[in-house]
Amino acid sequence: MFSWFKRKRESLAPIERIRTEDFTKTTELYHYFTNLTGIHFDQKESITTPKLIRFAQGQGCNSFGELMEKLRSDSSVREALINLLTVNETYFFREKGQLDFLAHHSCMVSTPLRILCAPGSSGEEAYSIAIILAESDFPLSHVQIVSIDINTEATNRARAGVYTNRALHRLPAPLKERYFVAEGTSYRVDETIKKVVDFRSCNIFEAEFLELGFFDTIFSRNMLIYFDLPTIEKAVNQLKKAARNDQTLFFFGHADLLTTPSGLESRVEEGIKYYTLKK
Questions:
Q1: Is 11 helix (H, G, I), strand (E, B) or coil?
Q2: Position 39 confidence tier, pLDDT thresholds 50, 70, 90
Q3: In 10-129, which ranges are E strands?
C-alpha cells in the first residue's frame, strides 16, 4: 500500500512556473541605448516603447530585464536593436546647395580629396557627392568618400547601391540616365560612382572612428538632432579630430545646431553655411 502512494507521488508532473511579462521598467534600457549610440528618446518614448516590447518578445524575452541580459552578452542582438531604432530616411541631392558649394570649392583643391559622411545612412548622400563632383569634372580618381553608419542594414543597402524611384525624385533625368542602370522598377548606381565610396559600419564614439584618417570635408547632417547638448559636444569633438587641418569644411543639417560648437567657426558664403576649425 505504501509503495502505491510512492508511485503516485512520482507520477505527479512537476508544477511549471508561469512566466509573466513585465515591460514596465524602461529606464535602464533607454539609458543603455543612449550610452551606446548617443541617441535620446525623451520626447518619443510613447511611440518607441511598443517597438521595444515587440523586439524583446521577438528575442524570446518576457521583460526588459531579460532583454538587457541578451544585449550585454550578444553583439548580434545589440546590432539588431540599433538597426531597429536608427532612422535612415533620405534621398539623393538632399540639401543640394551644400553639395554645389562643395563642388565649387573642390575645383580649387589640387591634392587628393577625402570626404567623410557621418552618418551615411543608406548611401544616397555619399553617391550624391560623387555625382556632383563628376558633373563638375573633378577627377574621381583623386576622390575618396568614406561613409559610416551604426546601422548595418543601411550600410549593406548602401554597398548594394540599388534604389527606388522615390529616392531619386530630386535627381534630374539626364543624371539618372548617366549614373544609374535601370533594373525593373529599381535603379543601380553605376560602378564608376560606386568605386569612389567606401561604406563602413562604425560608431563615431568608438576608437575605430579615429582609425579612418583625416578628411578635407566632413558631412554630418541630421545626426545631432537626436542628441542632447553634452552628446552634441562630444560628437562634434570627435568630428573635429577627423579634420585634416583648419581648411577642412564641416557641413551640418539645418536643424542640427542651435549655436556654434566650441572649437569651430561659422561661415556663410554664397548663401551656404559651413564651419571650419577655429584658428
A1: helix
A2: confident
A3: 113-117
Contact 159, 199 (CB under 8 A): yes
Treating both helix axes as pointing N-terminal to C-terminal, what angle do 64-73 and 27-37 enclose, rounded to 10 degrees? 30
Residues 6+ away with beta carbon under 8 Å from 142: 111, 112, 113
Q: In this predicted structure, what is the pLDDT of residue 36?
A: 87
User: Which among 272, 262, 269, 255 has a CA at the least distance from the CA of 239?
Assistant: 262
**Amino acid residing at 63:** S
Cβ 274 vs Cβ 251: under 8 Å: yes
pLDDT at 110: 66
Q: Give dist(CA 216, CA 240) in Å, integer.
A: 11
Nearest to 115 by CA among 212, 13, 34: 212
State the first-to-last Cα distance of the chain, in angstroms, to the nearest integer. 97
DSSP three-state, residue 268: strand
Domain 96-277 has CATH 1.10.10.10: no
Distance CA 49, CA 29 (A): 10
Q: At 53, phi and psi to the nearest 5?
A: -65, -45
Examine the pLDDT at 89 and tell me if it is beyond 90: no
Domain coordinates in residue numbering, the chain: 22-85, 96-277
Asked whether residue 15 carries a pLDDT value surpassing 70, the answer given is: no
CA 45 to chain centre: 20
d(CA 164, CA 277): 38
Q: What angle do CA 234, 277, 158 make, to 5 degrees?
A: 65
CA distance 107 to 139: 10
Query: Which residues lie below 8 Å from residue 172, measured CB to CB, with a gap of 6+?
Result: none
Cα–Cα dist 189/34, whole Å = 34
